[in-house]
Write a structure and sequence with these properties.
Pfam families: Formyl_trans_N. By secondary structure, this protein is α/β, with parallel strands linked by helices. The protein has 6 helices and 9 strands. The chain has 2 domains: 100 residues, Rossmann fold (3-Layer(aba) Sandwich); 93 residues, Formyl transferase, N-terminal domain (Rossmann fold, 3-Layer(aba) Sandwich). 36% of the residues lie in helices and 25% in strands. A 7-stranded mixed β-sheet has the order 3-2-1-4-5-6-7. Strands 8-9 form a two-stranded antiparallel ribbon. The protein binds glycinamide ribonucleotide.
Length: 197
C-alpha cells in the first residue's frame, strides 16, 4: 500500500511508520511526505529516510481553494492508496478527500476533544481516561469513522505536555498496527463502521 504522509511538526508518528515500512513484510511504503510548512523535523525525518518531500503552504496561494487544489496535485503525483495525516494541523478540503482515502490520528478519544489541543482539552475537562483515535477523514473536524482507539489514564500531576507525550506512545503503536493491518488485509467503510480484513 502506497502511503503519502502529511505532517506539520516533529513527525514522531511518521518516524514510527518509516521504521515499520523498512520491513517489506509490513505491507506498506511511505512514497512521499508532505507538509504545510518548511523547516520542520518531520521533513528532516523523511529526508534522512530517503523519502521524497513536498511543501504546500497556505500563504503561497491566493485562496484556501487554490491551496486545496495545489495539495491535491502534490499528493496525486505520488499515486497513493492512502493519505495519512500524522500531526498535519490543517483541515483538508473536498478535492483531496474525494480523490483519495485519508486517515488522521488525533490525541483524544473521538468524538471527545476535537481540534488542535486534544490532550490539553481533555486535561482541562478533568477526564480520568483519554487516548488516541485513528479515523477516516470526512468533512467534519475529527468526526470521521473510527479505525482504532487506544486509551491512556490521566495522572493527577499531568501537564498538557506530559499527557500528550504519553498519548503519543500509544498513538504510534496504534497507527503502525492499524496501517499495517489495513495494508495486508484490506479495509472498507460501511456507514460509520470501518472494517479491516
Ligand atoms: C500527534 O499527537 C497527533 O495526534 C496530533 O499532533 C501530534 C503530532 O505528533 N495531531 C493533532 O492534534 C491533529 N488534530 P508528531 O508530529 O510527533 O507525530
Amino acid at each position: 500500500m502506497r502511503l503519502v504522509v502529511l505532517v506539520s511538526g516533529t513527525g514522531t508518528n511518521l518516524q514510527a511508520l518509516l521504521d515499520a515500512c523498512a520491513d517489506p513484510a509490513y505491507g506498506a511504503e511511505v512514497v512521499a511526505v508532505g507538509a504545510d510548512r518548511d523547516g520542520i523535523e518531520g521533513l528532516a525525518r523523511a529526508q534522512r529516510a530517503g523519502v521524497p518531500t513536498f511543501v504546500c503552504r497556505v500563504r503561497d496561494h491566493e485562496s484556501r481553494a487554490d491551496w486545496d487544489g495545489a495539495l491535491l496535485e502534490a499528493v496525486a503525483a505520488y499515486e497513493p492508496d492512502l493519505v495519512v495525516s500524522a500531526g498535519f494541523m490543517k483541515l483538508v478540503g473536498p478535492p483531496l478527500l474525494e480523490r483519495f482515502p485519508m486517515v488522521n490520528t488525533h490525541p483524544a478519544l473521538c468524538p471527545a476533544f476535537p481540534g488542535t489541543q486534544g490532550a490539553a482539552d481533555a486535561l482541562a475537562y478533568g477526564v480520568k481516561v483519554t487516548g488516541a483515535t485513528l479515523f477516516v477523514v470526512d468533512d467534519g473536524v475529527d468526526t470521521g469513522p473510527i479505525v482504532a482507539q487506544a486509551t491512556v489514564p490521566v495522572a493527577d500531576d499531568d501537564t498538557p505536555a506530559s499527557l500528550h507525550e504519553r498519548i503519543k506512545v500509544v498513538e504510534r503503536s496504534m497507527l503502525v498496527d492499524s496501517i499495517g493491518r489495513m495494508a495486508r488485509e484490506g479495509w472498507s467503510v460501511t456507514g460509520r463502521h470501518v472494517r479491516i480484513g
